[in-house]
Design brief:
This protein is an alpha+beta fold and 402 residues long. The chain contains twelve helices and 16 strands. Helix 1 runs parallel beside helix 6, helix 3 runs parallel beside helix 4 and helix 6 packs parallel to helix 7. The protein is elongated and about 105 Å long. The protein starts with a helix and ends with a strand.
Length: 402
């Protein structure tokens, strides 16, 4: 055996026995000769005598490589190429055009109409082998890419399912709107972002005389921050906090939360606002750990932000949080909010801001709390241009009738 023949045989042996080639040629003699060559290469060969028949076989069998004669009845080779590229199910098929002419303008036309390569009808055995081998190699790469794409789509669907499950779980932790104690009515509205953040809030009775309420925000987005937020929310339940303290001092609650929730290895942390209201005295005590989203909207239309500068949770385990106190009067409203509200961006990038937020509150002061909060959210949505915010958008309101 000559060196050339040995080389050809060794290259032929490299083909997978499962590789399939479709040969579409209306000339029986030419087709018979090419089929014999392809089979000697160890390939499975399908045959068609015209372009229309070949296109039907290609769609049904999905061969690894299709070799098309240029000139055929019913449908010529370039037209088959065009049909393939317009069909999303087979558009990535590898196509080789056979022609007895190799003029540059003809080659350009074939490539423009969808062919991947050319093969002269007078090509040598070595060239045929090389062209077929190249086509099959490209087909293998394309199918690997398509397989990887399909796997990524499956993983994406699984991830979206996990995010939806986590979002449903987070939402199940939110309180029921309505009376929380005599003379205190609660309402809220919530827009979780697509990325699933970690904003949570709640309000509950501490004892027969006082209530506690809070809003928290976990840094980052995704399932992990959301579940960490759910854990902190569970920790802040009154029945759990009573294991650590015997009164509803928000500063003590914050200090204990700070010890229990240090920075994670990747630097994740919480911001948190906690308030405690005593119905006997009308006094609201509050503290904050890096969270600035709380205000009191007085019956006389004035707005006072309830915040001071203190570290978020977890930065220093021995941080001593201070609390402040204000007097609540009949008709006052305390509103807690995530920064996703006032940091909602317009299409220009300009943030909605606290000034517009306060103006909107003023405009709806006479409306019931259950209408005023959705109106506030609606204004932020209009500014944002969408009901889906870049970050979670939460509003919790308490109205006091003392």
């Amino acid at each position: 055996m000559s060196t050339a023949n040995t080389d050809t045989a060794s290259k032929a042996a490299a083909f997978s026995t499962t590789a399939t080639v479709l040969l579409v040629d209306d000339e029986p003699v030419s087709r018979l000769s090419m089929v014999a060559r392809l089979k000697r290469m160890g390939l499975r060969v399908l045959e068609a005598s015209n372009g229309k028949e070949g296109l039907a076989i290609l769609r049904r069998e999905r061969p690894d490589l299709t070799i098309l004669d240029w000139v055929m009845p019913e449908m010529d080779g370039p037209t088959v190429c065009e049909q393939v590229r317009q069909d999303p199910d087979i558009h990535s098929s590898q196509l080789i055009l056979m022609t007895s002419h190799d003029q540059p303008e003809q080659i350009a036309e074939g490539l423009a109409r969808g062919a991947d390569d050319f093969l002269s009808k007078s090509a040598s055995k070595q060239e045929i082998l090389a062209r077929v081998q190249s086509g099959l190699r490209a087909a293998s790469l394309v199918r690997n890419i398509e397989s990887t794409r399909d796997q990524l789509r499956i993983k994406q669907a699984e991830l979206e399912g996990e995010l939806q499950s986590a979002a449903s779980y987070v939402r199940s932790l939110l309180p029921a709107a309505g009376p929380v104690a005599p003379g205190i009515h609660m309402s809220w509205t919530y827009r979780p972002s697509l990325a699933l953040g970690g904003d949570l809030f709640n309000c509950s009775s501490w004892d027969e005389h006082s209530i506690t309420f809070y809003i928290l925000d976990a840094s980052g987005h995704g399932v992990s921050p959301a579940l960490r937020a759910a854990s902190l929310s569970t920790f802040l339940r009154a029945d759990n906090l009573r294991h650590y303290m015997d009164d509803s001092d928000p500063a003590r609650m914050m200090a204990e939360a700070n010890r229990q929730y240090p920075l994670t290895e990747d630097g994740s942390y919480f911001t948190l606002w906690i308030g405690s209201f005593d119905r006997r005295t009308g006094q609201l005590r509050y503290t904050t750990a890096g969270h600035g989203g709380a205000l009191i909207h007085r019956q006389n239309e004035t707005v006072e932000w309830l915040t001071h500068s203190q570290l978020p949770l977890g930065f220093e385990s021995d941080t001593q949080y201070k609390s402040s106190a204000i007097q609540v009067t009949d008709g006052d409203r305390v509103i807690l909010m995530s920064d996703g509200i006032y940091e909602a961006p317009a299409s220009t990038g300009e943030l909605w801001g606290t000034t517009r937020l306060e103006a909107t509150l003023m405009a709806h002061r006479s409306a019931p709390l259950g209408e005023a909060l959705p109106a506030l959210m609606a204004e932020a949505e209009r500014w944002n241009g969408s009901s889906v915010f870049p970050d979670d958008a939460a509003l919790l309101g308490l109205e006091f009738r003392l």
